[in-house]
C-alpha cells in the first residue's frame, strides 16, 4: 500500500488570551447538526478550525487526508459506536494529539477512556470556558507552549442555531415514520436524548426514556405506544422550532 501523505492545516497565527486555540484544527465526529453547531461556534470563538464528520466512515476519510490536532467523537453514531474509532487510533500514526469522547450518557465515560480517549465530556457542552480548558488540558506540552500562561477564557454559554435543530428533528421524524426496528429505536433514543439535553427539553427527554425502556427488551416484542408518543412530540417540536426555543406546552402532558 502506498504511503499516504497527510496534510496539516497552516497555522495562521499564535494563540492569544482571547483566542487560546488559534491555529488548531478540530475534527468533530457527530451526527447531530444541533450539537455540531454549538461546537462550531465554540471553535470560532476560540480561534480553532472545525471540520465535521457525521459518521465513522466519513471520519476515516478525514483522518486519511489530514491530521487534526484534536478529535472529538460522539459515542452513538449511525454506523457504529465511537469507541471503535477511538480504539482503532490508539498508538497509531493517524491518532491526533488530543482524542476526546462525548455522549449524553455519563455512564459511557469509562468505556471511552478504556478504549483510549484522553478525556470524556457529557452533553450538553455549552460552556466556552469548559470547552477551551478541555482542549488545552490535553494538548501535548510542546503545543501548549505557545498559549499564554494565564488564559482568561470567557465563561460564555453557547446556544446553537435553531435551524440546525430543525434539521435534526426532521431527520428523526422521517426515521420514526418508517416503523423502526429495535436497533434503530436504540439509535434514535440516543440521538434524540442528546437533542433533549442540548435543547433543555424535559418533555422530549421523558418521551425518549419510554423508548429506551422498550428497547432493553425489544427481542420479546415491540409495542407502538411509546413510539407513537415520541413521534407526535417530535412532530410538534418540528412545527414549533421556527418560533423560538423548545419548551413544554400543555399537549406535552397528554402525548
Automatic annotation (TrEMBL):
Sites of 4-aspartylphosphate modification: 74
Keywords in alphabetical order: Phosphoprotein
SMART domains reported in the protein's UniProt record: REC
GO biological process: phosphorelay signal transduction system
InterPro entries: Bact_response_regulator, CheY-like_superfamily, Sig_transdc_resp-reg_receiver
Entry keyword ATP-binding: no
Domain of life: Bacteria
Keyword field contains Glycoprotein: no
Record-annotated Response regulatory domain positions: 25-138
The protein's name: Response regulator
Amino acid at each position: 500500500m502506498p504511503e499516504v501523505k497527510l496534510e496539516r492545516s497552516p497555522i495562521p497565527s499564535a494563540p492569544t488570551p482571547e483566542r487560546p486555540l488559534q491555529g488548531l484544527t478540530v475534527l468533530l465526529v457527530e451526527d447531530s447538526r444541533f450539537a455540531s453547531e454549538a461546537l462550531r461556534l465554540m471553535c470560532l470563538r476560540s480561534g480553532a478550525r472545525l471540520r465535521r464528520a457525521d459518521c465513522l466512515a466519513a471520519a476515516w476519510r478525514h483522518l486519511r487526508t489530514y491530521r487534526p490536532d484534536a478529535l472529538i467523537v460522539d459515542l452513538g453514531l449511525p454506523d457504529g459506536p465511537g469507541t471503535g474509532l477511538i480504539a482503532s487510533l490508539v498508538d497509531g500514526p493517524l491518532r491526533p494529539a488530543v482524542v476526546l469522547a462525548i455522549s449524553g450518557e455519563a455512564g459511557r465515560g469509562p468505556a471511552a477512556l478504556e478504549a483510549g480517549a484522553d478525556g470524556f465530556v457529557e452533553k450538553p457542552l455549552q460552556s466556552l470556558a469548559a470547552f477551551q480548558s478541555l482542549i488545552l488540558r490535553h494538548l501535548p506540552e510542546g503545543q501548549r507552549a505557545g498559549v499564554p500562561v494565564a488564559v482568561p477564557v470567557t465563561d460564555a454559554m453557547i446556544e446553537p442555531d435553531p435551524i440546525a435543530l430543525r434539521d435534526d428533528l426532521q431527520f428523526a421524524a422521517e426515521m420514526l415514520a418508517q416503523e423502526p426496528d429495535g436497533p434503530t429505536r436504540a439509535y434514535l433514543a440516543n440521538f434524540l436524548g442528546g437533542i433533549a439535553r442540548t435543547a433543555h427539553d424535559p418533555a422530549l427527554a421523558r418521551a425518549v426514556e419510554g423508548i429506551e425502556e422498550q428497547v432493553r427488551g425489544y427481542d420479546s416484542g415491540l409495542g407502538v405506544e411509546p413510539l407513537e408518543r415520541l413521534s407526535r412530540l417530535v412532530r410538534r417540536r418540528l412545527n414549533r422550532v421556527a418560533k423560538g426555543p423548545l419548551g413544554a406546552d400543555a399537549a406535552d402532558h397528554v402525548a
